[in-house]
C-alpha cells in the first residue's frame, strides 16, 4: 500500500503492488509471498478486482453492495460483491460497451449501450433482450417517472425507448449535429444534453419542448486559458435542483446555476485533455473532476485545489463510493485502482478495518512516495550546476519546479559544496551544547492555585522522563500542559484542602512529603522575588537515601494512619467541649409556636420524635416499625422478601371509628330491649 500526500491530504492507494497470475498454484503463491516483501505487504481489498486488458466504466449499485465494471478483451462485465469481497459473476458480451446503467437497487436490471448500435438488457439470470437504435449511441439516461430511455449519439435526434410499453416513442429533434453526453436531474427530472458545438440543451420530458440553451464554449474561454479548436461538451452532471457541472473537451470544468446563463466558476485542468468524469462531494463541498491523466479535487465556491492524484495509467472513468472516502477508477490497464482518502469520509462498512489500519500508519509514519525524490526549483538547479538536465528524463516537471532522484541530488550537492561536512560537524556540536544547557536546573514558574500539586506533578514528570529514557518509551503528556485540567490550577474553587479529614486519612504520608515540597516552594518563591537563576541543583539527599526513606515510609504507613486518627479524635473532643461551653453561656429565651387548624397540641416530644425519625435512615425506620407491629417482613418461596405495611390512622379517622363503634353498641342495646318487650307481651304479663 502506497501513501502519498499533497496539501497535507493523505491518499492511500489500496491497489498498489504486484498481482499474482491466476494460473499459479497455491503452493507457488505462498512461496512467492515468503520471498517477495512487496507481495507480502500488498492489500487485496476485493479479490481479482481487475480486467483482462482494459476497464472502461465502473459503477456502484444503489444499495452499495455490488460494484460493476465493464472492459475488454473480450468484451465483458464483472460484478463484485462487497459483502463477500470477491467476484460474484462474469458475463461476456458480443461487442464493446460504450456505457451502462444499473436500473434497480441491485444487479437484477442492467442496460448496456454497445458500440455496434446495440442496446442489451440483462436481468438477474443473465441476457434478457437485445435491440438496436438507428444511429451510433454515445450516452443514455433513464427517466424513472415515465420509464423512458433517452439515447444521444451521432445524430441530431434524441431517441426515446419506453420500457413499460416496449416500443420506441417519437424522438426529440435538436439543433445540434451530434451529442456526446446527457443527464437527468434527480429532483425535477430536467433532461440536459451536451453537444459537439459546445452547447447544453435542456428539455422538459413532460412537454417534450426545449426550455433552455447554454453556450458553454464561449463561457469556457477566459483570459488565462489557451484553447486550440472549438471546445465540445464531454461530461455533464447535475447536483441537486439548481446546480450543474459541465466538462469540455479542452479541459475546463464549468459550474452553473440553472437560473443564470453565466458560470459561477471556471476551473482549468491545464492539460488540454477532455474531462472524462465529474463527481460531487457534499461533506466538504468539493468537485472531483478527472481527465485521462489526473484527478483533481477542488472547492466548488473558491476553485482552490484540495488535492490531486496522478495514476500511472490513463483514466477512463471515476466512481466515488457513496458516503465514504473511497474512490475507484477504471484505467487503461488490467488492474482497477482503489484509493482511500480519510479526509473525505470514513471507510465503507464492508471494509471498516481500513480506518484502524490508517490510524496505525499515521502513528508509525513510513516513507511516502515522494521521500525518494527531491523537489528543486530552477534556481536550485543553477546553483548545483544541473540546469542542462531540464527537459531530460532525470527531471520531472511539477508546479514551479522539478522532481529529481534524491541520490543524484546528494551527489551533486557534495560536488558543488565540498565543505558540507564541516557545516554538518558544527551543527552537531551546537546541538550537543544545547542539550547540555537543557539539563541545567531552570527556574520553575508555578501556578497560583495548587502549587504543591503542581510541584508534585513536575517531580513525577522528571522521574518518568528518566525512566522512559532508560526503557526507550514514549513520554506521556503532562497534566500541567493539558487544557482539560487548566482550570484546576487557575480557579481557587479547586484548591485542595489539606486540613480536611478525607485528605489526611487518604494521604497519611503527605505530612513528610509536603514538608519537603514546602521547603522547595519557599526556595522557588525567593528566586522568583529576587529574579536570580541558579546553575546548580539545590542540596538534597542521594538517590540511595531517598529510596531507603521511601521504604521506611511504606513500613510506617499504618502508624501514620493511627496517628492521624488519634489527632482527628482529639480535635473532635476539643470541638465538642467548645460547643458545650458555648451552650452553657447562651441564655435560653421562650419561643412561641403557632398550631394549625384541625390539629391538637399534645407535647413537644411528639414533634421531636418526628424530627428524629426523619433524620434516621430507611433501615432504622423499618426496624422501628417492625418492632411496633406496623411492618411485617417475610421470606417468599423464590428467595426474595415481602414487606407488608399497616398505615397509621390520623386523629380524625380514629375519632370517626370510635363514634361508629359507639353507634353500633347503642343499636345493639336498642335491639335487645325491643326483643325483651316482645317476649313479655307474648306471655301476657301486664306492663307496670
Automatic annotation (TrEMBL):
Its main location: nucleus. Residues 631-643 have a biased composition (Polar residues). Residues 648-663 have a biased composition (Basic and acidic residues). This is Nucleolar protein 10. The keyword Coiled coil applies. Residues 1-364 form the Nucleolar protein 10-like N-terminal domain. Residues 369-417 form the Nucleolar protein 10-like second domain. Residues 528-538 have a biased composition (Acidic residues). It is found in: Nucleus, Nucleolus. Residues 528-558, 631-688 are annotated as: Disordered. Residues 664-688 have a biased composition (Basic residues). Keywords: Coiled coil, Nucleus, Repeat, WD repeat. Pfam families: Beta-prop_NOL10_N, NOL10_2nd, NUC153. Residues 482-508 form the NUC153 domain. One of its GO terms (biological process) is maturation of SSU-rRNA from tricistronic rRNA transcript (SSU-rRNA, 5.8S rRNA, LSU-rRNA). One of its GO terms (cellular component) is 90S preribosome. Belongs to the WD repeat NOL10/ENP2 family.
